[in-house]
Amino acid sequence: LAISEPQRETATIACAQLAPVFGDVGRNRALAAGAIESAARSGADVVVLPELCTTGYAFMDRSQASELGESAEGPTLAGWRALAVEHQVVIVGGFCELDHERRPRNSAAVVDPRGVQCVYRKTHLWDREQLIFVAGSEPPPVVQTTVCKLGLAICYDAFFPEVMRELALAEAEVIAVPMNSPVVDPPTSPLAMEVVLALAAAHANSVFVAQADRAGTESGIEWAQASAICDPRGHLLAGPVLGEELLQASCDLGAARDKSLGLRNDIFADRRPELYANSRRRSTSKETVT
Amino acid sequence: LAISEPQRETATIACAQLAPVFGDVGRNRALAAGAIESAARSGADVVVLPELCTTGYAFMDRSQASELGESAEGPTLAGWRALAVEHQVVIVGGFCELDHERRPRNSAAVVDPRGVQCVYRKTHLWDREQLIFVAGSEPPPVVQTTVCKLGLAICYDAFFPEVMRELALAEAEVIAVPMNSPVVDPPTSPLAMEVVLALAAAHANSVFVAQADRAGTESGIEWAQASAICDPRGHLLAGPVLGEELLQASCDLGAARDKSLGLRNDIFADRRPELYANSRRRSTSKETVT
After folding, report:
1. Which of A77, B19, B61, B116 ranks highest by number of CB atoms within 10 Å?
2. Residue-wise pLDDT tens digits, A96-107
């Protein structure tokens, strides 16, 4: 499909909550491929995989990430390219990328039947990721895929309301969020915080949010298992679930292009950026922002 | 208390979910006063009242709002000043303000024992409010009260992640949200959207959010009854409840001054404003933002 093809009205989105085994890249690639095939067989047009889904998460240090990582021309993205063609799906998934200087990046790729459309390097690094990865310098992207305009954020990126707003303003219809979210606090009743944030971002931006989190445990890390598909009204279409599961939902993409709310409001037109001056500045909680 | 008093470490916040009767301003003032007194007796330091709590919400037109409204020097704020002194509390509540040109504003006041600290005029008007009120031109404020640094947003204002971020960056410890939120969609299971947005804003900004919504019905309008007190981790401390109720919670204000998350992150320092360029611009959903 060319970019000039007419807009699709609906798309079936799948999120694969997976439990890869740390360091067993061959097994994990097969696990991801199985999830993609299984989602495609049940009619998915877009499959979202977790963050770092081929290596696992808990690298000891940067050199271990360098050993297990691979370039964007490596076998993981080659495999996703082949699967995207074979099943005519869009694949979004996280992998440990080695950049041209072989520095590890916490990256995610958007692959469609035309090939790799985008490799994004996580810009907001969580906890020990700061010791392992070099942060990206390009903002979370919106990619015109064969199915939809797809925004991309990786896990902690999505905790920043600015990130989700930017993606929606750049016309994302679906924001895919590959995720590996460790349980920090006791889970929030009745919904995990990661799901609350996804629902709020979906509603505040009138956009679909499709996040694929981890199942299982890894080096003592418990995962929030916060996979979810949220519609532009902030309703849960699928998830959360426990264990390895495939979430799937049919999404009316037109609903994400419509920013109206009620009879007289439009969540984009109603913004008043001239009143939002502080947030343009970099700040730390130590500084006084006046 | 002078502004130079030492910071308080805890404060008891109350939110009054009330059912005023449209147009019966005398009765509604007494209802609000009763809620303030009752909250103060149970130890509240700050009492948040709903939006437009002395007039009710469903004005037919601007001239009806002009008839029922009053200036910031009128009896409603005079009453709150007296109650703030008598009970040594901070009062935050919505009222229909007539400005110096007698144009109606959907305003909220922050009143503490020193007097009226701030009158804010709602900047994001919902639905028919656009036909009734003149929108404010000053941003939602942060006020140093005798108890805490208090941010203020009125109902639909709080649907904009930018508003909550601005208030937190300006060092609000507690964001008070007087609210009259009509049910638009069927309520979201398991939490009303207004509560999801409050929890997300509290977590994303590490701040307390105290919103006071309406109970009852008015001119066929059903209210979301989404009163809630959320802590800086995005946990519900109180609410939501059905009917006329007083929510109350003891709040560790230091938790709202601490923007750290986990061992190595800080939600303010981790922001990357250089990557958030689109949202600085005014846009409508009709425009292409590139």
Report:
1. A77
2. 999 999 999 999
